[in-house]
Amino acid sequence: MLAEILDPAFLDALHSAAEKIRGESEFRIIAHYDGDGTSAGIILARALLKLSKRFHLGYIKNLGADSFRDRIQEEKDLPTIIVDAGSDQLRFVPDVQDIIVLDHHFYQKSSSKALNINARDYDIDGTREACGSTMAYLMALTLDDHNSDLFPFFLAGVIADKQDIGGLRGLNGKLEEAYGSKYQKVHSLNLEGENLLDALSYSTDPFFNNISGNSENSKKLLRETGIEISKPPLDLTEDEKRILARKLSFSMVSQGVSSEALKYLESDVYRFPTYGFSSKEISSIIDGNAKIDKNSVAVQYFLGDRRVKKECMDNWKIFKSKLIDYSYRSLKEMFQETNLRYFYAPESEMAGAISGLLMLYLLPQDKPVIGFSVSDGTAKVSGRGTRKQVEKGLNLSVVLKNAAQSVGGEGGGHDIAAGASIPSEKVKQFLEVANSIVREQLPSSGSRTD
After folding, report:
1. pLDDT tens digit sequence for 328-344
2. The whole model's pTM is what?
3. CATH number at residue 345
4. Cα–Cα distance between 291 and 307 in angstroms, integer?
C-alpha cells in the first residue's frame, strides 16, 4: 500500500533502511524527548520487538554540536536509529556511517555517510504534513505492513506536533485514509480526561482563560450547561456537545483568540479501546510524561505494562498543572520588543510548551513569542508563531538559527516553531538580532492583527 502513497525514491530510501535493520540484531534508538519524538520511539520499539531485535530507547534534548556528538560517541559502534531529529545534526558526526535518521525538520546539507531520510527531501511539508511519528510509522510499515496496528501512536505524534489542526493533510492524511478506517472515529470537543471536570480544569489545548486551572470556575460553567460534571467527554450526546461548545467558544472569543485557535475546540477523535484512551488522550499522556522527564513511564505503559497506568495519569496531571500555572505567570511577566515578545520560563524544558500555549490562546497575534530557560550558563530558546504569520513571511527556523549563530549558539526547527541554545550572557544580543530578522520577515509586526 505504501507504493501507492509514497514517491518511489522515498520508498527506496525506506527499503534501504529496512534492509539495514533486518541485518542487525541490536539497536540504539534516539528520539527527540517531546510528545512527537516519544510517540515515534514507541512505534520503532514495537516494530523492533516484532522482529525479535534487541534495542535501547533513549531521548535527546540538546541538539547542539557538542551534545549531539557526545551522545553518538557514547556507543558509536552500535547501529543507531535517530527519529524526530538528526538530519541537521549529522554534520557534527560526518564520518559515522551506522546511523539511520528519520526526520522532518529543516536541515543543512552535509557530507555525512549516514542514511538520512527526511520528508522534506521528497516535497513533503515537514511542518504540516509529516512529523517524527509519521516517519517512524512509515519505517514500521516498510518493515511489515502488519505494523499498521501502530496507527494510534502515529496519530499521537501528529497531534503532539499540532499537525492535526483543521484535519490531517498531505502525507499524514493519506496514511490516515489508508490505515485508520478500521478504528472508530467520532467528531467531538477536543477535551481529554476521565470526566468533564478534569477535562476543563486541566485543559491546555484548547486553553480557556480563567477556566483552565480553576476547578471552581470549571464547575460553574458545567452547572450552567446542566451537564453532569462526572461524564466522560466522549460520552456527551450531540445536544450536550452543542451546548458545551457554545459556552466554550464564547469563552475563547472573549479572551481574544484567533480563528486558528477556535478550530482546535472541536476535532475528529479516534477511540482506541485496546489502550483505554482516545487519540487525543494517548497523545497528551505521552507528551505530558515526556515533558517532565518521565518518557519511560508512558513507553512502559504503551508497550504493555498496565501496572503503570495510574503513574501515567498522575504525571499527566502534574505536567498540565505546571503548564497552566507557568503560562498564567509568564503572561503576567511578558517582555516586549518591537517585533517580538519574550519571557523567562519558571522551569527548565517548559519554555516550548508555554510559548506554544501563549501564542495560540492568550497573546495578540501580531508578532511571535520567544521563551527562555536559563541554567548552567546556557539559555535554551523556544520560539512560536502562528500560521497567519508564516503565511506573511515568518520563518522562525531562520530567525532562531541566524540569531543563535550570531552569538555563538545553534538553532533551527520549523517555520512556525523553532528552538535554539545560546550562552546565557548573550540573551540581550540574541534578542536584538532576532528582533531585526523578524522585522525583515514581518514588516508590519509592530501592529496588532488577527
Report:
1. 999 999 999 999 999 99
2. 0.84
3. 3.10.310.40
4. 21
